[in-house]
Amino acid sequence: MTTLPIALIQTRTPASPAAAFAHVEPLIREAAAGGAKLILTPEATNFLIQDRAKRDAVLTTADADEVVQKLRGLARELGVWLLIGSAIVKSGHDGDDRAANRSILIDDAGEVAATYDKLHVYDVDLPTGERWRESASIRPGDGAVIADTPWGKLGLTICYDIRFPQLHRALAKAGAVMISVPAAFTVPTGEAHWETLLRARAIETGAYVLAPAQAGTHEDGRRTWGRSTVVAPWGEVIANLDNDEPGVLFATLDFDAVARARNAVPQLTHDREFVLPS
């Protein structure tokens, strides 16, 4: 039996990189002291700024980003694997001044093991009147990413990606036994859909779903849902924070549960070609 002690970090990320690191560092240290070998932070760990001009004033490349580089050093110091759920960084695409919303997986030597740019950008008009156009400031990624870890393959997704089951199915079919869903969910959609979507993706893939979240009312006025959650391959919630306060959520993953779920319902092997409706 292979098991893995993990921790999800729930944050209320400030608007400046220096404050963001000061906020998340003690939580990561707490997670490592509690025995976690894989630690995951939420979407937008390096800063959370809605105003485009203010954001662009601190935006830099991942190699130069203060929070990313300090977190690499922290992973090395603590001897843990660390997923920066996402950092908002320059995309590196000439002619496109939009940022990338990028997950960065760091190994226990502080090296970058994998990166993933959010595929699906959040362009919505909610019944509450909230309007979001993430595509105006975030360049969507071009491909799915699966990363090797000492405990098995980790599929990378970010927030709004949770609504696209085909992505998660592709990750599972490529061998993912864990799928990360770092998020900054809005309150209306979080209250209505967060846990249901996470459980559905776990059931459909027979994989662990690991969802660290932003939480509470932020400096720029944004409100996020929190409720960081770990869902097992059979769809049961095995750990969650039932609030929107910063904190650490511990869980232990038993990878025999992946095999049990997939053997019981081998849906990943049952695809059939079909004719689309006209």
Automatic annotation (TrEMBL):
Family annotation (PROSITE patterns): CN_HYDROLASE, UPF0012
Record has RNA-binding as a keyword: no
Keywords assigned by UniProt, alphabetized: Hydrolase
Record-linked CDD domains: nit
Pfam families: CN_hydrolase
Annotated CN hydrolase domain residues: 4-255
UniProt keyword annotation of Oxidoreductase present: no
Sections of the chain in a coiled coil: none
Name the UniProt record assigns to this protein: Putative amidohydrolase
GO molecular function, one term: hydrolase activity, acting on carbon-nitrogen (but not peptide) bonds, in linear amides
